[in-house]
Amino acid sequence: MERFYVYTLLSLKDRRLYTGFTTNLKNRLQQHARGEVKSTQNRRPLKLIHYEYFINEQDAKAREVFLKSGFGRNQLKQALKRTLP
Predict the structure, then answer these.
(1) Pick the CATH number of 4-79 from 2.60.120.560, 3.40.1440.10, 1.10.10.10, 3.30.2010.10
(2) Most buried among 2, 8, 33, 66, by the most CB within 10 A?
């Protein structure tokens, strides 16, 4: 069974969040750490602060889009208020 992940990283450099989608979370986190992901390469170091696991790709992609929206981003920040600086 294929797995789909939506994850959120915290940039320890600029304290901003990055939300993404992947089928291989471990590999994707390594790519971020090595600077191979253009959107985060200048924001390293990064810390994984949240992820969700889905068995349906469309559900995962929809969740990613939601978390990147203003309302979704605010909801995530509220849920992680003790984690975020």
Answers:
(1) 3.40.1440.10
(2) 8
